[in-house]
Amino acid sequence: MTDLAPWLVVGLGNPGPEYARHRHNVGFMVADLLAQRAGLRFGRHRRVVADVAEGRLRVGGPRLVLMKPLTYMNLSGGPVAGLAQFYKVPREQVIAVHDELDIPWTQLRLKQGGGEGGHNGLRSMSSSLGGKDYLRVRFGVGRPPGRQNPADFVLSDFSAVERKELDYFVDRAADAVEMIIDQGLEQAQNRYHAD
């Protein structure tokens, strides 16, 4: 880890109000909450197609760059790589926050590296960053019911039952991001994988 380089937290999602509450946009939701907690404001970056907020988690805390790529999900790697290069962030200080079909609703899983599990945002990031060894906060959305197409499922709103719990789990995912930055991946995994 490089003390001088900031952490780059990438909330994955699709731009536009029509996508705002979709399962695929939990990364944007978590990024928005982290910005709110730190008193940061998103604005368009001058070099990459993304909304970006810069600052610190808290006074005296580590430097932080929050980003929401404004390309669609399957093209998000370009802006991520551009911003990582702009801020000289090593891959091991990049945290992607994303929806995960293979994890049950209400569960979080944290890891470094590994496969993309068919997630187009991660595939694009791995390709553009030139490796897979960035960190991931995987927000479980569960499998679609019945024979529903997984792509249609993630591009739909949370159910009424899920919406009642959504804010709580977005809050937990934001806590997990902060814990990774403050205490490292292993400590965060011990805390969040116990549930």
Key terms for this structure?
195 residues, alpha/beta, 6 helices, 7 strands, EC 3.1.1.29
Low-confidence stretches: none
Strands side by side in the biggest sheet: 2-3-4-1-5-7-6
Give the percentage of residues in beta strands.
Answer: 15-25%
Q: What is the arithmetic mean of pLDDT?
A: 94
Largest sheet features: 7 strands, mixed
CA gyration radius, whole angstroms: 15 Å
Q: What's the tally of helices?
A: 6
**Strand-pairing-aware structural class:** alpha/beta
Helix content: 25-40%
SSE string, helices as H and strands as E: EHEEEHEEHEHHH
> What is the distance, rounded to the nearest whole angstrom, between the alpha carbons of the first and last residues?
28 Å
Please count the beta strands (DSSP E, at least 2 residues each): 7
What is the molecular shape? Answer: globular
Describe it:
The protein is an alpha/beta fold and 195 residues long. The chain is 36% helix and 20% strand. The protein is built from 6 helices and 7 strands. It has helices spanning 26-38, 77-87, 120-129, 150-154, 160-183, 185-192, and strands spanning 7-11, 43-44, 50-56, 63-69, 94-100, 108-112, 135-140. It has a 7-stranded mixed beta sheet, sandwiched between helices. Strand 2 (43-44) and strand 3 (50-56) form a beta hairpin. Helix 2 (77-87) crosses helix 3 and helix 5 (160-183) packs antiparallel against helix 6. The longest helix is centred in the last third of the chain and has 24 residues, at 160-183. The chain starts with 6 loop residues before the first strand and ends with a helix. The model has no long low-confidence stretch (mean pLDDT 94).
